[in-house]
Amino acid sequence: MRTDITVIGGGTAGLVAAIACAEAGAAVTLHEAHSSLGGRGRATAAPCVAHEGPHVFYCDGPHWTWLAERGLTGRLVRPSARDLLRVSFVREGRRTLRPPAGFLRMITVGRSRTAPVDEDFHGWASRHFGEEAARAAARAIAVVTYDADTGRLSAAFVWELVRRVFAPGVPTVRWVAGGWQAVVDRLAVRARQLGVRVELGSRISALPDRPTIVATELSSARALLGDTSLHWESGHCVLLDLAVPHGARDRFLAFDLDAGGFHESYSMQDPATAPPGTSLFQLDMPVRDGERPADARQRLERFAGLTVPGWQDRAVWRRQGTARGRTGALDLPGLTWRDRPAIDRGDGVFLAGDMVAAPGMRGEIAINSAVRAAAGAVRAAGVSGRGTTGAA
């Protein structure tokens, strides 16, 4: 069977890249080392459908446009009006409905400010909004960075995240029925419809002699390509999934302004992710520099006691995990997404994933980089077919 382009990795980035190449008329073979597709977009099997970390979409970027134009987003879901009010913050070990006043001013009045690339967020935000607001914002946005010291990162990088996630007005967050697993399933169907040859359980140890897109974790790409420069800053956190009987005091969302933890319900917006009468939650807590993950897990469990009261006795299902070096790119002061490992590695090799040189956050980077990698691979292959893959 003819292959013009090889894609290594069957996660979101690999599937998007394969589809974009096939849409341009290329014959594509995708290799996935595991027995199933999806990468970090995978979810646990029903009846409790939980992801590896918080997984939502925002509809204000090219990643969403690419998915929506192809009908890959599927049906959207949202919490009830009552559940939307179940948002709280943890301050000084207590649950409260309001963040610090300085944080509210920051995300309303102050959102028109421009933050510098070469200064850390804590220093810049403290100067403009006060130290309390700076700490609160850094810890609230740890849901995106998975980092216990988000204030050390580039002010421009963190400020863009804060403005997007906490933007006043009509929210751009989107929950899709079935979560990212459902999107992964639709991507897989679309790829096969376009003729992509999918090889599961196929571990590639050497690059083929044709244009290739490496859509793996950066550490795996580093080993495969023998390129020691493939490093970037990423987060480190512990995760806890819980299923409990419905409780009136359980929260939909909660931001831990003491330590950067985050709590979200899966089931309040998508009841199909949990058995009837049951609520499903995911919590995460960043691991501090030099801290044992076990100590971070203790802090996470105390946080869970505030957002899912009595969870130890109520839990009918639970799962825990740790994520390190695979939580998306973080930009230090003086660096932007353009400084991350380049997508085009030369000699017909391209990178795609959530830690390479493409805009967005986490999974958005994976999608945007995949479309760009596909455009480069199609050019390198000299494919002339049904269309072209534009850059995201």
Verbal overview:
With 392 residues, the protein is of the alpha/beta class. The protein is 32% helix and 19% strand. The chain has 13 helices and 16 strands. The chain has helices spanning 12-23, 62-69, 81-84, 101-108, 121-129, 131-140, 142-145, 155-165, 179-193, 218-225, 293-307, 311-314, 363-381; strands at residues 5-8, 28-32, 57-58, 76-77, 87-91, 94-96, 173-176, 197-200, 212-214, 236-245, 253-256, 262-265, 278-286, 317-324, 344-346, 349-351. Helix 1 (12-23) packs parallel to helix 9 (179-193), helix 4 packs across helix 6 and helix 5 (121-129) packs across helix 8. The longest helix is centred in the C-terminal third of the chain and has 19 residues, at 363-381. The two termini are 30 Å apart.
Query: What is the arithmetic mean of pLDDT?
Result: 94
Whole-Å distance between the termini? 30 Å
SS-based class: alpha/beta
Shape: globular
Helical fraction equals 25-40%
What's the Cα radius of gyration? 21 Å
Largest sheet: 7 strands, mixed
Features:
seven-stranded mixed beta sheet, 16 strands, 392 residues, 32% helix, 13 helices, six-stranded mixed beta sheet, disordered C terminus, alpha/beta, globular
Write the layout of secondary structure elements.
Elements: E1 5-8, H1 12-23, E2 28-32, E3 57-58, H2 62-69, E4 76-77, H3 81-84, E5 87-91, E6 94-96, H4 101-108, H5 121-129, H6 131-140, H7 142-145, H8 155-165, E7 173-176, H9 179-193, E8 197-200, E9 212-214, H10 218-225, E10 236-245, E11 253-256, E12 262-265, E13 278-286, H11 293-307, H12 311-314, E14 317-324, E15 344-346, E16 349-351, H13 363-381
Parallel strand pairs: 1-2, 1-9, 2-8, 5-11, 9-16
Antiparallel strand pairs: 3-7, 4-7, 5-6, 10-13, 10-14, 11-12, 12-13, 15-16
Helix pairs in contact: 1-9, 1-13, 4-6, 5-6, 5-8
